[in-house]
Design goal:
Number of strands: 2
Strand content: 5-15%
Order of helices and strands: HHEEHH
Organism: Clostridium liquoris
Distance between the termini: 39 Å
Protein name: Phage protein, HK97 gp10 family
Largest sheet: 2 strands, antiparallel
Structural class: alpha+beta
Length: about 110
């Protein structure tokens, strides 16, 4: 008596797992991006003039094929100057990434069961 396996059921199960995994990763990554955004806005070291630099900081996720990127970005033309000039006294994005990355990566490892 031989063992009979229906490979179609296995493939369908793997496909369903992939879809659920991508959805969970997407939700987690978007939450992580929003957390970076909040941290950057709350801790931006400059004094607001128009408030647009702080208001337009955005965090989220972006899919590139099977790769999910978490990001935080300043969206004013002068945002790079805040991050990179004046001896980096006005940087808000990099400190958010530096402080929250370990927590975000631990959470992702927990999500993936590693």
């Amino acid at each position: 008596m031989g063992l009979k396996i229906d490979i179609e059921d296995v493939l369908n199960g793997l496909y369903g797992f992939e879809i659920k995994s991508k959805a969970a990763i997407g939700v987690y990554a978007d939450t992580a991006g929003k957390k970076l955004e909040k941290h950057a806005k709350d801790n931006a070291p400059w004094t607001d003039r128009s408030g647009l630099a702080r208001k337009t900081i955005e965090g989220g996720k972006q899919w590139e094929g099977d790769k999910c990127n978490v990001y935080v970005a300043g969206n004013m033309p002068y945002s790079p100057f805040l991050e990179l000039c004046n001896d980096k006294r006005y940087t808000a994005l990099k400190p958010a990434v530096d402080q929250l990355s370990p927590e975000i990566l631990r959470g992702m490892n927990n999500l993936l069961g590693k």
